[in-house]
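Figure S7 source data.
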Amino acid sequence: MALKPRYDVVVVGGGNAAVCAALEARRLGASVVVLEAAPQHMRGGNSRHTRNVRYMHIGPDNYLVGDYTEDEFFADLLQVTGGETNEELARMTIRASQDLGQWIAGNGVRWQGALKGTLSLNRTNAFFLGGGKALLNHYYELAGRLSIEAVYNAEVEDIVPGEQGRVFVHLDGRRQEVAAKSVVVASGGFEANLEWLGEYWGDDAKNFAIRGTPFNRGRPLRALLDRGAKAIGNPREYHAIAVDARGPQFDGGIVTRLDTVPFAIVVNREGRRFSDEGADIWPKRYASWGGLIARQPGQVAFSILDSQRVEEFMPGCFPPVVAGSIPALARELGLDPETVAATVAAYNAAVILGKYDSTVLDDCHTLGLDPPKSHWALPIQKPPFFAYPLRTGITFTYYGLAVNAQAQVLGEAGTPLGGIYAAGEVMSGNILGRGYLAGFGMTIGSVFGRIAGREAAKHALS
Ligand SMILES: Cc1cc2nc3c(=O)[nH]c(=O)nc-3n(C[C@H](O)[C@H](O)[C@H](O)COP(=O)(O)OP(=O)(O)OC[C@H]3O[C@@H](n4cnc5c(N)ncnc54)[C@H](O)[C@@H]3O)c2cc1C
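Tokens for the predicted flavin-adenine dinucleotide complex:
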């Protein structure tokens, strides 16, 4: 599609936050274009990999049961961030999430019951029927009916703030300029830019898997930081989990996630354990394993378990490595058999058996072992033995653009940069200093996308 020379609102990015902004801006009467770096079949960024959104509700809503109040939601956020959140913006986001169920369904999306599995979410998180891809397809279809223009293979390279903002985009093999009364930046994090990650992680960054889109390379973020936008968040912080090391480096999505850890011991490539596999219930702990593995040599690890535990987690997308003995398993994994056998033997000897229950913090633990396994510790003794290779899988980065409650991008001095708004991952660091709550990425993107779209339209039409 050919670009017009000017629009009221230019939206940079094509994921959930971007399309929420586009829909709201258009409904207020603004002319809107969505510039998406990806080709059409890969549109939608990380949002197309999602399954659910977390939102506040009083009483049952769609398939959600019970209540999920502002205070409980905020307490959950405080717990995972260790207090590293902007309370005003966080509470505003939580309150504004209350009508999300209705708004999302009002745009054609349908709901399904919560998926069963290791993370139990049926009170807090609503699941889109068909996942994020179906959600985005509904949104894009609606956007088309509302005459929002969507331009694909359009990589935004620069954004110049001002009364008449300018956006520079690489399209059809050349650099093109579009004038915009308002710009909404919703271009995700910079997790797919391994060189940029390398500034903080060195060569280790080359070993990370990026769970989502290869297009989130942070170019619009970099451009605005260079033009005086205020940065927020720690550049080394990200959401990262343990994924199957055999998955692709980019775009593996949800199926490469492995939930083996609580049922296993985890060793590094030297054959040694390095963290408590039973520290807390899995929904509170799964997101810490990406970072733990990132600090191990080669950014790899191996979960090892026996035939008694292998049915207890959602199967991975690759089969486990199987062997009749621990040394044989270690050889299959390319690890030193003697060290791994000694690690397993030391662990088995330290296990204090209790009443095993993987759904609570049970009393099966180790004694005198460093690091301990605090819960669900059972001896690894019944062949065959199983292993899964793990590596760090980054979901998204937190370092981004500082914003206010109107989604306006702030300059170094803390005053808004004229006409520039941000939504989604690119500003998630305002609320997520560290840690993560499942389903909160879509909350932030939907709430801020809607605010950014409305504010951008008001600014453009004033
Ligand atoms: C495997 C996986 C599963 C997840 N599951 C969930 C879940 O169930 N619930 C949840 O809440 N969160 C989940 N998340 C996190 C969630 O995807 C994000 O928090 C959310 O989608 C962010 O939305 P966004 O619109 O900000 O970014 P994205 O959806 O990533 O969109 C960014 C967009 O910007 C475009 N872009 C980037 N650079 C440029 C450029 N220079 N020019 C133009 N366009 C550009 C990209 O192509 C993309 O379209 C998951 C993430 C992954 C990877």
